[in-house]
Amino acid sequence: MSPLITLVAQRIALGLLLLLAVSVLIFAGTELLPGDVAASILGQSATPEALANMRRDMGLDEPAVSRYFSWLFSAIQGDLGTALTSGQEISSQIASRLGNTLFLAFWAAVIAVPLAVFLGLLAVRYEGRWPDKAISAVTLASISLPEFFIGYLLIYFVAVKLGWFPSVATIYPSMSLGEKLHAIGLPVAVLVMVVLAHMMRMTRAAILNVMQSAYIETAELKGLNQFKIIWRHAFPNAIAPVVNVVMLNLAYLIVGVVVVEVIFVYPGMGQYLVDHVSKRDVPVVQACGLIFAAVYIGLNLIADVVSIATNPRLRHPK
Amino acid sequence: MTDSFLDIRGLKIGATVYPPGEKPKDIEIVHGVDIKLEKGKVLGLIGESGAGKSTIGLASMGYGRGGVRITGGEVFLNGRDILKIGAKGLRGLRGKEVTYVSQSAAASFNPAKRLMEQIVESALEHGVHSRADAEARAVKHFRDLGLPDPENFGKRYPHQVSGGQLQRAMTAMALCPEPDLIVFDEPTTALDVTTQIDVLAAIKEAIRKTGVAAIYVTHDLAVVAQVSDDIMVLRHGKMVERDTAETIITNPSQDYTRALVSVKSSEHPEKAPVGEPVLQCKNITASYGGDVKVLKNVSMDLYPGQTLAVVGESGSGKSTTARVITGLLPPIEGEILFDGRVLPPALAQRSRDDLRELQMIYQMADVAMNPRQTIGTIIGRPLEFYFGIKGAEKRKKTIKLLDKIELGESFIDRYPAELSGGQKQRVCIARSLAAKPKLIICDEVTSALDPLVAEGILKLLLDLQAEENVAYLFITHDLATVKSIADSIAVMYQGKLQRYGTKTEVLTPPFDDYTDLLLSSVPEMKIGWLEHVLATRKMESAGN
Predict the structure, then answer these.
(1) In chain A, what are the domains?
(2) Which residues in B lie closer than 8 A to residue A213 (C-beta atoms)?
(3) Which of A90, B34, B143, B206 can pair with A80 through a Cys bridge, CB separation 3.0 to 4.6 Å?
(4) Does A219 touch chain B (CB under 8 A)?
């Protein structure tokens, strides 16, 4: 078997193992919370008998280990349980929420990733001169401002004063793609500004590092122009670190958008999670935690695999 | 001469240097050099490091490496001054009229791209050939340069071929756009002698066939004598002399050139072994994990006050031998006796006295010293660590050691960056001597140094050996160095001891095949040596 396949298989196995460990942590964490589901459902009317009945009905009197495994096996089969507050299937609720979050993350990524790489290449091309400094200054300023601040700033100027985009990014399944995109204009802008700097700086640093190599001098002595040198000879050798940072930021776009979703009242996973944490709806919190963990691990797994696959020594062994 | 297509007049090159603790300052590194070159001729540029030879080579492409700038003079190439044609004009000329072959082809190829893609790139970029045409030419060059499987060679990635093959591939890359001039910058310096001779022959043949002109930069006079029509000797950014290769080798007019020519001829009479051996390796077998054994059943003895030279090409196991002796790599089988006692195989099990009596000096003096410590701290450290000497006593001893290595007290508060390569290596020698060792392992200690500087280091090592009665295990790939320092020699090949004995025994025929190949591959300072060796080898192989 080629070393590439072995390495990729190892990474995937490790990722699954990690996900299993995270599921244990999530389950244990929610177990440690004071009170349980039965107590929170019954609330004021919790008599000891009612609690005991409820626990028996829900299988809560069984030992934690067996409850963990039954939770895990149903989760693997796509059944994440029922939300306590609404009594609805969590899986179907999450499906539409996750869809919305992925929609937002997708468009933010479609704009942010190529833009970051392009700005990174541009910064390398004009290293130390004003375009480089301007790009660094602007992207660093945007990452330094808290996202809620940028969010409210955009709402005030772009939504309220100029009226270009709505301040509330509510989307419905019945909307056309154009309407949806118009609705999410502002949250996408905020997310792009938040993730841009990190990816741009990494692209710049990774390529500058490669630019010290002897083969860059070779390219220069072939008479190639600066942009061809960067694009053809430097960038292919800088992909691995760039992909790692891109994946971290994609994960952030999916997992970390709670604040942005709340500001723009966007019906995504983040808002869903925050709502149910405040209502102490434990099964929903567990389900969201598991999905977030899976997304995070999955994207980092992709980053690892891409890094391995871009290494010619592994792709083409001797 | 009117038919010089390259005419460099009064070339001045400057750079900005950043001495530690001082303001950056501009210095001039080449002070007005004139070079004329006719079509199809090969000019060798020779000199020690810092002489400006590579810098001048690159200046013919209008290129300054790092912070290096061309500050004055004219460089006429094909009738125009290339210093006045601007960045765009220079791009049009690089890779078309002039191409470049660097010292380290392994670093100069992009690891992420196939060789063919890189080799035809400049021809395509400048529109010299169509892709199909360029690739066909590349394959032809592969064949002429003796590369294996020329049809498919270009499909490989740089890491899939050997160092010697890469160096030839880089020559093919330089030839592909059919330039008027190729700058060869130490193209064989990083190769083993046995590989160097083939690459040298391939380069020479390629130059002859294509009729391209070349500037051949090297520090090795014997190498450049094989390929050049003319040789220009440079020192401190100025020309010492320029003449035909024949005259430079046989009848140089300047003292400096005479010193360069004679540097390889120093002889060292071997000493007879006295007393009990200080080091005995007994049937050492070692591996870096896995089934591959990098050392196979190696045994050798070293006597006090003597030098055992371990020679071989890269991958022969000579550095692994040092790792086993120092305890960095415990052997699978065999044992090491030091001063009559068995040394524990692993470093962690050895006593402080074991460590003290066995010191090491490395090839790269730069990286073997902490750049943020003064020379005094570096040399004083073993005094304190092994003997507990502190304060004024330590300073006194440090100064004494500095005197021994012919540097003196003024160096005690300086930093490594302020020293030249040879001076740094001297400091490393002093540091190992501070431990009062019985054995010093010298791992390629002169390989990174210029011949005249290396000669000084060897002389110092011999003087110190006479004074301190310390033994050296001298690892090197350079057979000339061996002759001038060794008492006994171990020739290693593919992890095995190929030939072992006193210097006279090892260097006296009849030789085994490998030793013969190794010895006959060492360039000699004779015009026509290369052709002679190749002809002899051809006859022998025909005879077999």
Answers:
(1) 99-282 (1.10.3720.10)
(2) 107
(3) A90
(4) yes
